[in-house]
Amino acid sequence: MKKEKYYLKCTNCEHITPDFGSWFEQNQTCPQCGSKRSEVWYNSDYKEFQYILKGNPENFWQYFYYLPLNRNENIITRNEGAVPVQRWWFLEDFARENYGLNIEVIAYRNDLNGGTGTFKDVAAALAASIFKENDIKQYCVASTGNTATAYARYLAIAGISCSVFLPEDALSASEAIISAFGQQVFRVKGDYSKAKQIAAEYAKKYNILISTGNIDPIRVEAKKTMVFEWLRQMDKIPDVYIQAISGGTGPIAIDKGIREIKGIYPELKNPRFIMVQPDGCDVMVQAWEKAQAAGFPEGFENDYPIIESPKTAIPTLATGNPATYPIISKLVKDSNGTFLRMKESKLVDYGKLVAYERKLIIGPASAVSVAGFFEALKHGQINDGESVMINLGEGFRRAPEFAAQLKNETKEISSVDECQPHQIDRIRQKIWDNILKD
Ligand SMILES: Cc1ncc(COP(=O)(O)O)c(C=O)c1O
Ligand SMILES: [Zn+2]
């Protein structure tokens, strides 16, 4: 008998669920122990993996053999997940001149994803494809914005109705775009926790499938392909990985991807995870600092504060009740990484810096990642000779309000007498001064 392509295994009791059809029927829960966390594994010896890496993919479906979809006619794609990594010399120069460090700085350009320009596109593409294969017609999700927007678009492409629960502080651009795709927005009077709670009640009331959040095996399987992409493009895993963190699918998926290919790459290990949060919503950083001060006592991972209705200018990162902290904090600790906070008051300055030095407009959550690089240097978290990846999770089209703040100097004039020729280099010093002043 031919072996099935994949199966799900409970991370708690190892119960096997044969496929996503069964997983959905059993309410995305392990029937044996009730855990929501199962991982996908493949009946493969990964012999083809090295050949696949030599390809020149248009999207992450290049890794179809290692994705939980049986028939490729169910693939839905808008060219996501094969985004480039780029050397950012201006940050390498900065580290050399100011800290005496010779490092490689790599930006991972998730803003270039074809779906909605965020690193949520791969998950939405995989979800839409799996739902198509399993004849799912209705879905719902609570999200701070980017996941919702990506799911709204990809599910709409697959003809699937999607109800989206946005917290009240979500960007109005997200709301409009989701609605424009034809999906239903429920704007919840309350924060992200409240949105998740009502979405769960809605799912139960109408028996509609709901995203299970950061441990959702669909999201994890999609995002793990970033590990494969790094191997394809760089032939290595970076020493340090910097990301703005909200719920933490990023590190969970990287860890899964690396474990998945241990058989053929026994030497691979997780990068040092440097997880960055804005000071307006820094629950994980607070928990980590407390644990660190106490010498990481037994059970430190279960001790974290909860902020009701966090006040942050980056609604994408507004997870005030980080239920995944127990998982993420362990991963971060095991990787010798850390959690760092950045000052939101300087968010626009980081946006301006990248715009000036790279001629690239990034989104606010990406600016948090870039800030994390500077914080990591300040905290002595980067060593000589290392490669440091900064995950740019979103482009500016997700947050037009942010782009509108990046203005440097406009002169109001009424006659040519008030105009002098422009020198592009003149602005540089001012931009850097703003970054470096505290
Ligand atoms: C652009 C961007 N950066 C970072 C994050 C945080 O992602 P994670 O789920 O890994 O915490 C998100 C999503 O919440 C995001 O959209
Ligand atoms: Zn179980």
Structure description:
Helix 12 packs antiparallel against helix 15 (426-436). The radius of gyration is 22 Å and the shape is globular. The chain is 37% helix and 14% strand. Helix 9 (249-260) links the parallel strand 10 and strand 11 (272-278). The protein has helices at 20-25, 49-53, 89-99, 121-133, 146-157, 172-180, 192-206, 217-234, 249-260, 283-293, 325-334, 347-358, 364-378, 400-403, 426-436; strands at 6-10, 16-17, 38-42, 85-87, 104-109, 138-142, 161-167, 184-188, 209-210, 240-244, 272-278, 338-342, 387-392. The chain has a six-stranded mixed beta sheet, sandwiched between helices. The chain is an alpha/beta fold and 438 residues long. The relative contact order is 0.12. It has a single domain, classed as Rossmann fold.
N→C terminal distance: 66 Å
Largest sheet: 6 strands, mixed
What's the CATH first level? Alpha Beta
Counting H and I runs of at least 4 residues, what is the number of helices? 15
* Estimated structural class: alpha/beta
Do you know the CATH architecture?
3-Layer(aba) Sandwich
Number of domains: 1
Overall average pLDDT = 96
Instruction: Give the spatial strand order of the biggest sheet.
Output: 4-5-13-10-11-12
Q: Can I get a quick summary?
A:
This protein is of the alpha/beta class.
Key traits:
Rossmann fold, single chain, 4-stranded parallel beta sheet, 438 residues, alpha/beta, 6-stranded mixed beta sheet, 14% strand
Write the layout of secondary structure elements.
Blueprint: E1 6-10, E2 16-17, H1 20-25, E3 38-42, H2 49-53, E4 85-87, H3 89-99, E5 104-109, H4 121-133, E6 138-142, H5 146-157, E7 161-167, H6 172-180, E8 184-188, H7 192-206, E9 209-210, H8 217-234, E10 240-244, H9 249-260, E11 272-278, H10 283-293, H11 325-334, E12 338-342, H12 347-358, H13 364-378, E13 387-392, H14 400-403, H15 426-436
Helix pairs in contact: 4-5, 4-8, 5-6, 8-9, 12-13, 12-15
Bound molecules: pyridoxal-5'-phosphate and zinc ion.
The site of zinc ion has 8 residues, from loops.
